[in-house]
């Protein structure tokens, strides 16, 4: 087939698809752009973005042993379709580089530089940061080094803001040891148990299989280094942050105690705590419709502030 005819048919097919979507009210799948950027120490980070670049922005930061795919439900949520959505794989995870030394994960400033690099690469103006679990610590590390002027709000989702046995469960402490075991059999079994502990309403089938693969891709050095961080307490950072904070927490979280979020709420009058009665450590996955509605409301209000 000659190129001109091929181009004509492709264009005609696109117009037909748009006509069908308009007639039956089917929303077009948003275009997604993948990007890569080097952080300050040379670590390559991979992410993707979708939505109007001029719309209010949300930067999603996933948790330990997860990946940017954790946010798939948010990227397909109609409630969030009017926003610029950006996500990336943390260092040591997914498609991003995996430095072999635990030192690469022990320094809060390196996590902060990663967020700054992604913000620059995605050309974000003033995003809301959504930090889940370890991602909450990463968001706090960014605020600690770069301040809050470039952020319009923070959504902490079952977030780790202080490494303390009073705020983390004994099970979380156990996983910190067993999922980094030098024994491959133990490490494999415990990584699967860790994933199970992230949910009250667990994934099944293909979704579970994919999550297990992603968890297995994570570098051992991540957890080995993170637990040795010289910056274990970011509560003062969130207390000093002048912007709005939404705290989201699953009532059945088996890893991070509700008290972790309650402490931030107490330190920051005016912040809002939203407890999800049917969720564990992953309310954005277990109750995605509610999560999307609340996040959309929060981002809209933050953009106006």
From TrEMBL:
Q: A Pfam family name for this chain?
A: Abhydrolase_1
Has UniProt tagged this entry with the keyword Hydrolase? yes
The record's listing under InterPro entries reads: AB_hydrolase_1, AB_hydrolase_fold, AB_hydrolase_sf, TAT_signal
As given in the record, the signal peptide range reads: 1-22
Q: Which domain of life is it from?
A: Bacteria
Q: Which residues form the AB hydrolase-1 domain?
A: 58-288
**Keywords on this record?**
Hydrolase, Signal
PANTHER family named among the record's database cross-references = AB HYDROLASE SUPERFAMILY PROTEIN YCLE, MONOACYLGLYCEROL LIPASE
Put simply, this protein is called Pimeloyl-ACP methyl ester carboxylesterase
Give the originating organism: Inquilinus ginsengisoli
